[in-house]
Write a structure and sequence with these properties.
By secondary structure, the protein is an alpha+beta fold. Among the domains are: 69-126; 233-331 and 351-369, N-terminal domain of TfIIb (Single Sheet). Helices cover 42% and strands 10% of the residues. It contains twelve helices and nine strands. A seven-stranded mixed β-sheet has the order 2-3-4-5-1-8-7, with helices on one face. A hairpin with a 6-residue loop joins strand 4 (285-290) and strand 5 (297-303). The chain is elongated. The chain starts with a helix and ends in a 22-residue tail after the last helix. It binds a DNA duplex (16 and 16 nucleotides) through strand 2. Keywords: Coiled coil, DNA-binding, Nucleus, Transcription, Transcription regulation. Pfam families: WRKY. Residues 78-105 form a coiled coil.
Amino acid sequence: MEPLDRKRVVNEMDFFAGDLSSTHVNAGDDDDHHRVKMETEYPGFLQDQADDVNTGINLLTTNTASEKSLQKQRVIQLADVRAELERTNAENQWLKLTLNQVNNNYYALKMHLVSLMQRQRNRVAESSKANNTEMNRSMEDKTHGEGMVARQFVDLGESEKAEKDEISESSSEERLPDLSGSPGNTIVESMERREKNSTTPEGLPQPPGWLPNKAPKLNTSKDNEQAQHTMAMIQKARVSVRARSEASMIADGCQWRKYGQKMAKGNPCPRAYYRCTMATGCPVRKQLQRCAKDQTILVTTYEGNHNHPLPPAAMAMASTTAAAASALLSGSLPSADGVIVPKGMMLPCSPSLVTLSASAPFPTVTLDLTHNPKQRPLNQLHPISPPWPHNISGLPPHLLGHPIYNQSKPLGTLLSSQGNTELIPGHLGQSQMHVHPVAMAAAITADPNFTTVLVAAITSIIGDSHRDNSGNNNSTTSRNTGDNNT
DNA sequence: CGATTTTGACCTGCGC
DNA sequence: GCGCAGGTCAAAATCG
């Protein structure tokens, strides 16, 4: 065998079984850690290493003449290997970052594509509608309105500039997200950056991430207002979770601050309003209310998107709401038509577990966790165990907890034009819309993460629902206040 | 004393 | 235009 091969073998001996040689350089915990990691990533690695060591032992016992110089070379070689290992680790980290970035860019492009497709659909619908009803309407106004929905996915907070540029619709630069630079150049972050730069109607700076419910209206055209309204709908899509709990609040991992309480019509229990306080300006809010018919059921309704990293516990809920809202709004559905049908959508895995409500005022998806889990063990809903605390939904990190920003399908195609539906899932009115089981199955197929996330969330919630959130010792109980008390 | 909750007032959208 | 209901604000009260 060539000397180089011997050196490699001895070096690996040292690397793998550092105490075999009296001259080995500290293998240390790092090497142990490395070997464990390598065995984890490449099963059989340790066996291969052991084979190499045995080979090396044989070589050493048969040839020890140049051992001194060999030991010197081993030290050098070991240093080289370690340097190489560090370089590989660094490269690995870089590759991971790159992968994340590619993921981010992929989702940004995907959303952009969907928004463009929707624009096209809107354009067709608008032109046919215009032909029938408003022949004398100015072409400029029409053109202005058509592109707003798609544009606002990208240019939220830049409406004035958008108005000026709207005519030049063919300019792709203004709508394509900047994918060229630093990680996270996504539509989401683009929107968030622009929010930071945006101002209130009074000219005051907006808190980062804050999406005011009272969006300033564009008074340029009716279409603009409609687009604004649509965008507001998208931003206000809700995910409602029903769970039996004696606790005043389900622990969802986030910190909340109560900012209001009202008596809701038809329910003796007050509705409490909470705002996420994990980051300044986080727009996420939630409502807590007990079901009127069964006050052991606590209904938690989430609205908005976190603008900050979430702890694993919070990511559970956030990802669930993200996936659920995604199923509602973009639906993971191939077509805007025929997805949500007037009757009967439930998750095929568990009757009444998930209800999609696309009714006014805001689209809501309800996760009903009040059914007896013994009838259908949660872990049978999906063969894959919840992958927490890792990327539980399979969504890029920036999407976690951002159920709304990622919705590309304008709600105009999903929203019912009629009626008001109570936010409380138990009281969903006639205008509640369901998705056909087949359609939902298609949705699940298209978005398999949804089921996984849902199961994980349910597991989490069931575990948490019976213990009070010590950090959220808010009471929604005895005092019924507000100017709407009747 | 700062953070949080309470609670009456106010704002907005919607239906009539 | 008016009233109702949902949602939010913000000062006062309370808590730790």
